[in-house]
Amino acid sequence: MPINFEFKARTKDINELETKLLSLHPIFKGEDMQCDTYFNVPKGRLKLREGNIENALIYYERENTPGTKQSQILLYKHSPDSTLKEILSVSNGVSSVVTKQRKIYFIDNVKFHFDKIIGLGNFVEVEAIDTDGSIGLEKIKAQCDYYAAFFGIRREDYIAVSYSDLLTTNL
Question: Which of 151, 64, 75 is nearest to 107 (CA)?
């Protein structure tokens, strides 16, 4: 199972943070319009991501704590197909739907998201990813901490929960 270390933070000036990242010459993967449908599951989170760049069924477990944190992820990439969403909706029920405009960048194994979430505002999300265990938890944690400092993320900017939780609890 791939290991991520990540953080999510609210930002008032998403363009400023993106400009700052551009100074490091990241690889731009594109701008994705995403709809994440979250399903009821007994533990963790299960979501179906539908976008013009990324389409995946994603199961993850992560503590709801502010700051950088580890998450365990299972990812199944698929071609868009309404049948999968229908099966998951009927069998599990839908807990929430998150619609976002996301710009995606990479620097090596680190993925950067600049998100505009309908109903919530603007966020930056950074994921340091170790897909096969070759990088190590300490290094991906250090990478994540480095980019949090690089962006000037303050303690009060961090988001402890998922976007779906923010929408359903109005935090």
Answer: 151
